[in-house]
UniProtKB/TrEMBL annotation:
Domain of life: Bacteria
Membrane topology, from the record: Multi-pass membrane protein
Protein name: Glycosyltransferase, catalytic subunit of cellulose synthase and poly-beta-1,6-N-acetylglucosamine synthase
GO terms, molecular function: glycosyltransferase activity
Predominant subcellular localization, coarse grouping: membrane
Record-annotated membrane-spanning stretches: 6-29, 310-342, 354-375
Localization in the cell: Membrane
GO cellular component, one term: membrane
InterPro entries per record: Glycosyltr_2/OpgH_subfam, Nucleotide-diphossugar_trans
Keywords tagged on the record: Glycosyltransferase, Membrane, Transferase, Transmembrane, Transmembrane helix
Length: 392
């Protein structure tokens, strides 16, 4: 019986331990100061700001009013702010126009961000823009966002991921979601760049040259997780993704267990479906030395962030009774994973919120397990998680 359990558990312990060690390497690398390219020119690039808004009446007016203020920091004639209105109320659309936004109305049998962005580009792409900015409906940008985006384009970067910060911590789940975003940013954006590898894309707070965006957008087919599809597209084409720590966007965090489960289920479905599709392309990339693309595909094999520590802890306990090798392997993974989070998460927040976070841990595990059940639902159609107004 012990031999059978060893055969079953040792591969899982090895997989999780390797994932933990990988995250630890990224965490250490994230403390390295990132070098950026020199500014090549001083142009004021023309930007097309695209904001897909699906049933986002609760937040889109607030974020638009805040973001349109960019006209006071960047030449008004050098950017257009376009809300892609998918099932918005007419009163909301009127309010958007009154506040200076352009509105591109769309309607699909099955709505996706990819379809919305493709439709907008079909209308606006032929105009003389130099760059494209993608925001979520709830996103509020920090002061001088477009000036900083302009500088990154003038440094010669084609694909840029900004720094998405939490706009709210009004519930424990919002706090957890914000900490997860911070970990993702430090590990998969900053840490990856520090090792000379492409940053992840996060779905919003993204900046592209018009050529880079047009090259990718019409090839995308994702129902959910279009940012994953874009990562794979760009890295396979040898296009580097730069992380911009000072390009800040405030993003609403999931505030309830139910929405957390839906969102993570949608993300996991995208992650594992793209992993399955990308194995053969990754082998081809490996054969020609495109390690950036191979690395992006390998990231798709990472375990769910919320479940990995719990699974490793259970394996440590099981190893005490089953096999010393299982115990040591899973213990190494648990320690590496724990240290990676301690290295990248704000210590003040962890100390201040330790008790609430600890009490929320069982709900987090339950929601993460529930997310696995939402994977199948996500294959059939986009699972919408509604936005709620957050004052920033």
């Amino acid at each position: 019986m012990q031999l059978l359990l060893y055969i079953l558990l040792m591969p899982l312990a090895t997989y999780l331990a390797l994932a933990g060690l990988y995250q630890f390497i990224l965490a250490v690398a994230s403390h390295k100061t990132l070098k950026v390219a020199a500014i090549k020119n001083s142009l004021n690039n023309r930007f097309l700001v695209l904001v897909p808004a699906y049933k986002a009446d609760a937040v889109i007016l607030h974020s638009t009013v805040k973001n349109i203020a960019m006209k006071y920091q960047y030449p008004k004639s050098h950017f257009d702010y376009v809300v892609i209105a998918d099932q918005l109320k007419q009163s909301t659309i009127a309010g958007l126009k009154a506040n200076g936004a352009q509105v591109h109305e769309v309607s699909f049998e099955k709505s996706t961000k990819v379809k919305a962005l493709q439709s907008a580009m079909a209308k606006y792409g032929a105009r003389n823009y130099d760059g494209v900015v993608i925001l979520d409906a709830d996103n509020v940008v920090e002061h001088n966002f477009l000036n900083k985006a302009n500088t990154y384009l003038n440094r010669g970067y084609n694909v840029i991921q900004g720094n998405r910060k939490s706009a709210n911590s009004n519930t424990t789940f919002a706090l957890l979601d914000g900490l997860s975003e911070t970990a993702n940013t430090q590990l998969l954006c900053k840490g990856a760049n520090a090792l000379g590898l492409s940053s992840k894309l996060s779905g919003s707070g993204m900046v592209f040259t018009i050529q880079a965006f047009e090259k990718a957008i019409y090839d995308l087919t994702a129902i959910g997780g279009f940012d994953k599809e874009m990562e794979l597209f760009y890295t396979q084409a040898w296009d580097y993704i730069q992380y911009a720590d000072d390009l800040v966007v405030y993003d609403e965090k999931i505030a309830s267990a139910g929405d957390f489960s839906k969102q993570r289920g949608r993300w996991l479905e995208a992650q594992y479906s793209f992993l399955k599709k990308s194995i053969k392309p990754a082998l081809r990339s490996l054969s020609i030395g495109n390690l950036d693309h191979v690395h992006k595909v390998a990231q798709l094999a990472l375990p769910p962030r919320a479940l990995a520590p719990f699974a490793l802890l259970m394996l440590v306990v099981a190893g005490l009774f089953i096999n010393q090798t299982v115990l040591i392997t899973s213990l190494i993974g648990f320690v590496a994973l724990s240290l990676s989070y301690l290295l990248v998460l704000p210590s003040k927040t962890l100390k201040k919120q330790f008790i609430p976070l600890l009490m929320a841990f069982p709900s987090l595990i339950a929601s993460a397990i529930g997310a696995l059940g939402n994977i199948k639902k996500s294959r059939k159609g986009f699972i919408h998680t509604p936005h709620k107004l957050v004052k920033t």
